[in-house]
Amino acid sequence: MSQTAWEALSNQAVAAAGVVYFLALLSHLAEWALLRSVPVAGQRGQATAREAVTVGAGAPPAPEPEVDDRTAERVEMAGRLGFLLTCLAAVVHLVALVARGMAAEPHRVPWGNMYEFTLSGTFVVAALYLLLRRRFGLAWMAPIVVAVVLSLLMVAVIWLYQPVGPLREALNSYWLVIHVVSAIIATGAFTLGGIASALFLLKERAERKGRTGGYLGRVPSPAALDRVSYRMHAFGFPVWTFAVLITGPIWAHEAWASYWSWDPKEVWAFITWVVYAAYLHARATAGWKGRNAALLALLGMATLWFNFIGINYFSTSSMHSYADAPAVSPLHPGS
Amino acid sequence: MSEQSGQQQPTQQPTRQPTRRPGELTARELGRFVWRQLTSMRTALVLLLLLALAAVPGSVIPQESVDSFGARQWKDQHESLTPVYEALGLFDVYGSVWFAAVYVLLMVSLVGCILPRTKHYWTAARAVPPAAPRHLTRLPDHAAYDVGASPEQVLEVARAELRRRRYRLRPAPTEGAAVEREAGTVAAERGYLREAGNLLFHLSVIVVLVGFAMGGLLGYKGGVIVVQGAGFANNLTQYDDFVPGSFFSADELEPFSFDVDSFEVEWLEEGPGQGMARAFEAGLTYRTAPGEPDQTYDLRVNHPLRIGDSEVFLVGHGYAPIVTVRGGDGEVAYSGPTVFLPQDASFFSFGVVKALAAEPEAIGLEGFFYPFFASIDGDPFNVMGRDGNPVLSTNVYVGDLGLEDGESQSVYILDKEDATQLENDEGRPLRLDLAVGDTARLPDGLGSVTFEGVEPWVRVQVSQTPGKRIALGGVVLALIGLCGSLFIRPRRVWLRVVPAEDGEGSRVELAALDRSGGGDTAAVVDDLRLAIVEALDHPQEDTP
């Protein structure tokens, strides 16, 4: 296959993956919409009690909805369909990545610019979710993960797209594989952890306010969410350390003559690292556990994604701005 | 940053002294109070967040040390803000006092935390697991079940299973009341290395900082632009810019020298990435010291040249148009390759030529260099970085170019304040557009300008970074420690076996406690319960 054929394949696969992710999102939404008519197990009594209060004293309590077998079946179907579609989308997503790498001459890893990085990052988010779904009971996360992946893919296609090109000279190093792949994996893990933390905050708030129905009624308990979030972060943090503080400096030393030069991207990677370090500490500190720790996790995710996409448009001096930067940044020797 | 110190110790009651007012502290007490505050986990957290916050301005405001040109431009554009920012050190955030204050406080907090913790760990690491609590079923994760085997069998099997899982077991007491109290129980603990990992991580942070500081204090980095065919000797006077560490002395410069014999760029002429430069390579001939034999090296990006403790990097390239300026008398006032600085990826470059010796008046040229000039509807345009059609397009200034006042000047900036800009017949600024070989005469017999040709230049950075291995080693150790502290789960497991009430077999109570918060102790209990039942069913396999 020619380079252009590979590139076309990659573009089509991205589009197809987007469509399938969208279908997966639809079935998960259908799943959760259908679930609305099924009362949350164990909380039925509470819910009806509340209903009775709102209806007003004297009114007959609302009849308990019969748990409809057919509805339960449909819920199950929709959930399974969503999962299968997500698997399918992830496979197509992988095809897009591989084709992207094959389209370059010479072949290379498909993370040479922002578009490709986003493509890889979202793939890792989807893949990690699929791999860990069973182990950590992440089924509740499905609609959110799929929505996040889909939106980021759209951002990539609409704003970050670049035709396949050869690697910039500074990127032409085996450290590209090691450094970037670890950054991508950490980004994926942190993103999943951030989703869990966000849900933790929402769920906690809902519980405080006594709302127990709807989607939030079915996500795991705050303690379980906190644990999932911690596990994701605990996995992501060493990987991020490896990417940002070991392989990054080694490569920077080879390519830019200085292992740490306070380049905006480095600064923000460092900020992200510090914020996640603070998160891990906060989880062990009285008064910071729970809510504040979860807020720190979200702050960490904000810095992470700002660093990933935002800083390239915000700062023009970054040596990392591969989105639309010159081959070797024009030099302004201080003199 | 200790977990223990998270809870504030109640401040010690001051000893009664008649002269003291409430809240008054002796210096010693105050010191202890401050120390406690500083080394508390909460302070450490706040300091961490402060560190993150303090790092932000440096990524937004151009930094002298990172992007000095950008910093200068910024200062020109914001005249009123500049003095304020300068006073705050915002052009050198990472070297500023307040940034240092944050990380020094963080380090003090860290040391104040790991010292007592190391001491504590020293004893805790060798301690025996604590005896089983009286009511195991009150722990959050527990199991209670009956087995057919006798209590002795169960205890033996449980001990073996726990040992196999590398738990440390509490030895059975041999005398005193404890013998009876602990009879029929097993107490086990594992994950002692978690705290070691934690301490290692925090110690390593200090190691990294030491390595980093060594690089900053003892090392240096300098940049120089060398035109093809020219050379460089490692000597302070030869650098365009030089950033020494605070304790750097000039005799640390190793006496090597090199010549740039050639510079090759491969330009992508077509396809995706067209116009990109790739695979650039500078052919160097270098000598480790004067009189040493010549060696050659192909300097490329990602492939620095190491000479002794110094490293030479290729960090950029560009073009130097060769310009000859003659005065009104026809004498050559200036001639040679003049470095122009690329402004964008197409190597469209900006630069100045100063012919100060020209008579009757000094001549200054300021303008642009197009490596591959093209004109679209009369608008000049640069096609790509390859020097396919070089054109030099400059304005001309004569008169006082600001050198009389003796201030040192950048070779990339023309001081036009007191100079006169030459105009053409229509009264518009005169622009010279020269292709290679062209000569333009200046009006009023002021002289002429000839564009002779183009030489490429390379920008080379030379640096010494002592302590880089220490820093790297520190980070690697930190990562190992980090993994230990995150993934080793400290657990305590207790088991109590009593004869079953009906006399047949025994009743087992099993409980586990995770001391890290985040472990799944229910799974531990389950696993152990099944393992014990299994081992009791097949005694021959697991009996030690």
Key words describing this protein structure:
heterodimer, A: 335 residues, mainly alpha, disordered C terminus, B: 544 residues, alpha+beta, seven-stranded antiparallel sheet, 12 helices
Q: Got a strand count of chain B?
A: 24
The helicity of chain A comes to over 70%
Distance between the termini of chain B: 42 Å
Mean pLDDT of chain A: 81
The biggest sheet of chain B, with number of strands, parallel, antiparallel or mixed sense and barrel status, is: 7 strands, antiparallel
Q: How would a textbook summarize the main sheet of chain A?
A: none
The most extensive contact between chains is: A-B, 69 and 83 residues
Number of strands of chain A: 0
Q: Extract low-pLDDT stretches of chain A.
A: 42-64, 322-335
Order of helices and strands of chain A: HHHHHHHHHH
| SS summary, helix count of chain B | 12
Please give a quick description of this structure.
The complex is a heterodimer of chains A (335) and B (544). Chain A has 335 residues and is mainly alpha-helical.
Task: Please describe what this structure looks like.
The complex is a heterodimer of chains A (335) and B (544). The model of chain A is unreliable at 42-64 and 322-335 (pLDDT under 50). Chain A is mainly alpha-helical. In chain A, α1 (3-35) runs antiparallel to α3 (69-103) and α9 (264-282) packs antiparallel against α10. Chain A has 10 helices and no strands. The radius of gyration of chain A is 23 Å and the shape is flat. Chain B is an alpha+beta fold and 544 residues long. Chain B has 12 helices and 24 strands. Chain B has helices spanning 27-38, 41-55, 57-60, 68-77, 81-88, 97-124, 151-164, 177-181, 193-218, 468-487, 521-537, 539-542; strands at residues 141-147, 168-169, 185-190, 220-227, 231-233, 241-244, 257-267, 277-287, 295-300, 305-307, 310-327, 332-337, 341-342, 349-355, 363-370, 373-376, 379-382, 391-399, 419-421, 431-435, 439-442, 447-464, 491-499, 506-514. In chain B, α6 packs antiparallel against α9 (193-218) and α7 (151-164) crosses α11 (521-537). Chain B is elongated and about 125 Å long. The model of chain B is unreliable at 1-11 (pLDDT under 50).
